[in-house]
Design a protein that fits this description.
The structure is a single chain. With 122 residues, this protein is α+β, with helices and mostly antiparallel strands. It has a single domain, classed as 4'-phosphopantetheinyl transferase domain (Ribosomal Protein L22, Chain A), CATH 3.90.470. The protein has five helices and five strands. The strands form two sheets. It has a three-stranded antiparallel sheet. Strands 2-3 form a two-stranded antiparallel sheet. A hairpin with a 2-residue loop joins strand 4 and strand 5. The longest helix has 19 residues.
Length: 122
């Protein structure tokens, strides 16, 4: 059963500008995510997708970032390279409060915009 649905978009150019502030990167991204973003050819596009994924997760929870901070929401990639949430202890607790067990993620980019959708299932 679907327990939550969230969607978010992020303009790549906006992300490119705010990435100049290292405090933003430290506040919004985990160390693993910052490393992944830094290794990408189009870092701003990658960061925009991860940012949108975090916002989509918070929206799917129905509470925004009241139960979690942005750096508590971890985004990674599975064996095939598809984006996925890396469920950690804080995320697991938030999912359980929502009655969910699993979080599905899809990220897409087009026309200078990154979009992410999160579906919570339980």
């Amino acid at each position: 059963m679907i327990r939550g649905l969230g969607c978010d978009v992020c303009a790549v150019e906006r992300m490119r500008k705010i990435m100049q502030d290292s405090r933003f990167l430290e506040r919004w991204f985990t160390g693993e995510e910052r490393e992944y973003i830094g290794a990408r050819k189009n870092a701003a596009e990658t960061a925009a997708g991860i940012f949108a994924a975090k916002e989509a997760f918070a929206k799917a929870l129905g509470a925004g970032f009241t139960a979690l901070t942005p750096d508590h929401v971890a985004v990674g990639h599975d064996e095939s390279g598809a984006p996925c949430y890396r469920i950690n202890e804080k995320m697991r607790a938030a999912l359980e409060r929502r009655g969910a067990e699993t979080a599905f993620l899809s990220i897409s980019h087009d026309g200078g915009v990154a979009m992410a959708v999160c579906v919570l299932e339980g």
